Amino acid sequence: MERKVLFLRAETGWKDPSPPMAFAYLGKIAKDAGFEVLVENLNAQYNQKNIGDIIELIKKENPIVGISIFTNYAVDSYDLIKKIRPYCKTIIAGGPHVTIYPEETIEQGADIAVVGEAEAMFANLLNAIALGKKLDKVKGIVYKDKNKIKKNPAAEQVNIDKLPSPDKDIFRKEDYVKIKDEINNFGGILTSRGCPGRCTYCYHALFGKCFRYRPAKNVFDEVLELYKKYGVTHINFIDDAFTVNKNRLIELCDMLAEAKLPIEWVCATRIDFLDEEMISKMKKAGCVMISLGVESLIPSSLIKMKKTSNAEWYIQRTKDILIWCKKAKIRIGVNILTGFPWNSTEEIKELNKRIKRIRKYVTQGFCGGVLQPMPNTEDYDNYAKEYGFEKWWMNKKDFFIKNHHPFFMLFYHVFWEQLQNNFYKLDKKVFREIDQLYKMMGKWNLKIISKRRFRNSFVSFGVYQGLLLLSKLSLFLYNISPSLEKSLMSPIANYSYRFKYKH
Ligand code: B12
Known about the structure:
43% of the residues lie in helices and 14% in strands. The radius of gyration is 23 Å and the shape is globular. With 503 residues, it is an alpha/beta fold.
């Protein structure tokens, strides 16, 4: 077999503005082990390839194929596996979904499923395949051996200080970059793995329960590399909770501030790992936006989702952080999560009121969503049977819009699809209340984005009104016929992706 690897990601309808980190890390390891690396991310925002192109590529190059799978779009990945199966010798699958359901992935046509983090074992696996060796010595895999499924012992946890920098040269720039500014889509950096939180809705299986972080200097070097190599000037720290280690954060901020690079950055974090001193340091180091996982402002809900054990402190702290960020002139995004089985009309109404009170501080916008129970989370394990949504991802038809997200989901009602799924069979009134809540937040987001893109207040107001009108029209058309909405709104939606994701 050729010493070539082809990384694939199926088209999902929800486009990737940025290249997948998994391929950048594993691509580097494959290259260092002497493999040529090819990537086709069919979900990349500007990727134009179709399944025929992929089959031709596989026939020509005869590579080992590696597919990355999230739960939401597992079925799209399985479709892809079925289509390429006749042309591939070996298909490896990996990612958050495969980690929980390796056997399902094998049943769906993959030869080998990688469980958990792959960096420590990937070179061994590739070498074993390329040399035609038995797989019984390769850790962290589930595989088919003479029609039997075998499960090897777990791979070692990755020491992230020792990992080589993710290799972004493996990606075709044109898949992510059309205009100069979009090179910043290459600015994603992962500085830690895991999260100290134990929220009931969050998937923690992949990186384990122990929180690991890279030293400040190591992170700083990656920032520098992206700046020098690609001209990236906007870094997105994609950690679950970037600010957990205060000492490291301050050390990194000092390095960035001292280097005086023309670089701005954004991150996401939790309420319980942020204080005024950190915010001020972050500002001086170029931080322009923090996405806060607030999730709720209702004490009972915060406790039930295990976001905190001291809800009063948490809510007060949220308000303090918003004020500190306003003072520091750092934009704030707030995530709000609803759709829990215990949500009541009163609770969502109260949440709505409390959100209105913090609205003026939320300068980046509201995000979050309606709960989608991910396997291996408490919200899945405790309720899947009771509410009848076991293995919901296999019923794609019932849960997802195939490969086209209507225009109104772009800005106005991002969580419409999640709400329709109604996993916890919410009462009609609660459903309506949540619908209202997200539409209200959608309108604010439209206002914010229009203001950020157009300084002139007349122009921005006009753009806001226009986008709102188009969103409502899209929702109206969609309710008549999804294909009518698609044919009329697609050209505007395609253009609007760029408007939305511009940094
Ligand atoms: C950045 C990110 C995104 C970006 C993705 C950008 C991109 N181009 O990839 C955006 C914002 C688009 C996104 C969207 C969504 N995301 Co997201 N996202 C993340 C985040 C924060 C980081 C992902 C990452 O890069 N990790 C670092 C890399 C190194 O890890 P990795 O991808 O898991 O890869 C490792 C292993 O999984 C494995 N592996 C992965 N692929 C492969 C392939 C092969 C062949 C092999 C051998 C191994 C392997 O090896 C890798 C190295 O160890 C994670 C949380 C997290 N901390 O990981 C959530 C996370 C992946 N997202 C998640 C979810 C639910 C979503 C959404 C469905 C949210 C939504 N409701 O809309 C959407 C789905 C969009 C889509 N089209 O599929 C979940 C997935 C859970 C699950 N069971 O699938 C996660 C884990 C968050 C969470 N804790 O719940 N997301």
